[in-house]
Amino acid sequence: WCNEIHVGPIGHPFKLCRGQNTSIRKGHHEWADAVVEDILVQVEAYHLFDGLRDFLSLEFQLLLSYVSKLGLIYLNSPQKRRRKPNESELPDLEPECPKTPLLAEIPNAEIVPPSSAEATALLAKETLQAWEKMRGGANKLMKMYPVRVCGYCPEVHMGPSGHKAQNCGAHKHQQRNGQHGWHWQTAVLDDLIRPRYVWHVPDLVEPVLKRELRNFYGQAPAVVEICVQGGAVVPEQYKPATRLDVGIPIDVRKAE
C-alpha cells in the first residue's frame, strides 16, 4: 500500500503506512515480497544525444544494474550533430555493430542464493564494496559534469540546465503548467542514487522489533542492511545511523 520496505524475516510492527485504506488498517503494513527495484531505486533521466556541445548523460540505471545484477552494458544511443545552429533535419547515421557487454547479465531464472554461510558472507561483502564503489564513482562524475534536480519534485536532469518537459507534478504545478522552470538546482549524490532507509534489526535470532522501543532502533540504507544481515561488517560511515552503540531496553519499563 505504500513505499515502506523492511529487511528481515518478518516486517516491522510500526504503524507508519499512509497508503490506501490506512484508516481501516490503523496504519499497519501488509507485507509482501520485495524486488530488487524496491531496494535500488531506478532514477530515469532524459538522454542528451543531439546538441551543439558535448554532454555526458550519466545513465544511472546502468550503475544500479551493476550492483543489482552484476551487469554493465555500453550505452549505444544514436549520435547526431548539427552542422549549422539552425539545422533541424539531419540524416540518419549508419547503425553501428552492437558493442560487447563488459559483463554478462545473469537472467533472473538462473540466479541462485549462496549455498553456505561463508558464501553468503562473501557475497554480502562484495555487494557492499560494489555499492560503495558505485556511489564513489558517481560522486566523482558529478564534480565534472553538471547534474540538476527540480526544487519541487525528484526529477533529475544531466546537463548545464534543466529540460523543458512539462512533467512536474509537485506543489502548485498548475501555476507553472507543469514546468520545472527556474527551480532547477544543483543535485547531490542522494538525488541520483536514492538510499531506501530501513530499520536496523539488531538481533536476527529474535528479529521482532517492539513498537514501544522504536526510538532506540537505528536505520540504514536497505543495501547496507541486507549486506550486514548477510554477514558483512557495518562500514564506519553507517555506524551512527544504525545506532550500534545504543543499548536497547528489554521492555517499556526499562525504556522509561
Can you walk me through this structure?
Residues 1-50, 149-236 form the APO domain. It comes from Escallonia rubra. GO terms for molecular function: RNA binding. This is APO domain-containing protein. With 256 residues, the protein is mainly alpha-helical. The protein is 25% helix and 6% strand. It contains 8 helices and 5 strands. The radius of gyration is 22 Å and the shape is globular.
Strand coverage percent: 5-15%
Low-confidence stretches: 50-62, 64-81
Count of individual beta strands? 5
Radius of gyration: 22 Å
Structural class designation: mainly alpha
Distance between the termini: 33 Å
Helix content: 25-40%
What order do the SSEs take from the amino end to the carboxyl end, as H and E?
HHHHEEEHEEHHH
> Taking all residues together, what is the mean pLDDT?
78
What's the assembly state of these chains? Answer: single chain
Specify the number of helices: 8
Identify the strand order in the major beta sheet. Answer: 2-1-3
Which word captures the global form? globular
Largest sheet: 3 strands, antiparallel
Domain APO: 1-50, 149-236
Organism: Escallonia rubra
Protein name: APO domain-containing protein
Pfam families: APO_RNA-bind
